[in-house]
From TrEMBL:
Domain Transglycosylase SLT: 28-319
Protein species of origin: Shewanella gelidii
GO biological-process terms attached to the record: peptidoglycan catabolic process
Name under which the protein is recorded: Lytic transglycosylase
Signal sequence range: 1-23
Annotated ranges, domain Peptidoglycan binding-like: 339-394
PANTHER family reported in the protein's UniProt record: LYTIC MUREIN TRANSGLYCOSYLASE (PTHR30163:SF8), MEMBRANE-BOUND LYTIC MUREIN TRANSGLYCOSYLASE B (PTHR30163)
Amino acid sequence: MKQIIAVIPLMFSAGLMSFSASAAEQDFSQCKVKLEKAAVAQGIQQSTIEKGLRDLKPIKRVIKLDRSQPEFSQTFADYFNKRVTSKRVAQGRKLLKKHRALLQKLQKEYGVPPQYLMSFWGLETNFGGYKGKMPVLDALATLACDPRRDSFFTQEFILALGLMEKNGFEPQQMVGSWAGAMGHTQFMPSAYSQYAVDGDGDGIVDLWNSTEDALTSAANFLAELGWQRNERWGREVLLPSDYNFKYLGAKDRLPLSQWAEAGVRQANGQAISTPKMDAALYVPAGQAGPAFLAYENFNVIMRWNRSENYAIAVGHLADRINGAAPLQKKPPLQTRLSRAQIKALQQSLIDLGYELGKADGIMGKQSIAALQQYQRSQGMIADGYPSEDSFKALSIKL
């Protein structure tokens, strides 16, 4: 009798797993039907649709990766130090020399300096060393069938089918990131369709195998996003010891003359120049870490990838490739916070009456502003950073 009782839970568990797997397969099959109808409605040829959907499979790992993007889950030090390395700087300088003729041509045509194209290339795929191995159609379909951002990825999936149709790509050729980004510079299908350029003149826009196509496309993309000729992305700065962080983040863009009057100086201690440009202040690791004044081209980089950490890494790597020194103030080593811990902090602030939207586990602009208000009310340094002191003040255990 004991043996029979012991077996029942195992059988029941196995049955649940089988039912769950079967249900997931059924849901994906139904989603494939929706994707096919959407593709037909947007004019994709039936032969392309059949080829693209024939062997389509969901990828469980894609959903996991979508929920833990490093741009939003790592500390600034973890993110920055893994991406802006001496090895990557040296490789960027080497490739800048190798492709100088092409890069100078692109700068003249699109206004984007060579070091920035090298930086994007380096951060996206380590200069083509790793372009991703995920089947793009499978990854996009997986995300299109997930309710979090289904509309966005449905459109990206259809555009990927359009790229197959236009360029004669086979599904197995189209490999990339978990999110469906492709080639040397990791273009999403929408960017590929709208901004990719045939840089080598062979009649095919191939971002996987043509460096000329990839770099030309990147320059065109940045120009279309609003790149400002003859302006840099931003710079590391030193804040006065008594800075109160009244102005912080994208919402507080001030003239450089006003930052100078507030005592902000270059990282080397010299006074900042004050051309008629606006800048915003960023402290990605809080007051304990480096500070940056960012200009309009920082916002352009953010239109490529909506992460402040990414934009700072791109900008500083470009500076280093162009001969600049490392950061004067190294990013401090800080405890990596889980999404659940950030949610707890956000919910505590909401419970205290601070408006920041939904507790989603991501320290966005509203959450930073709310935390600043709370820190200021407690007589703390109001840098908006979720420090251990902030958790302690809110009675949240780490």
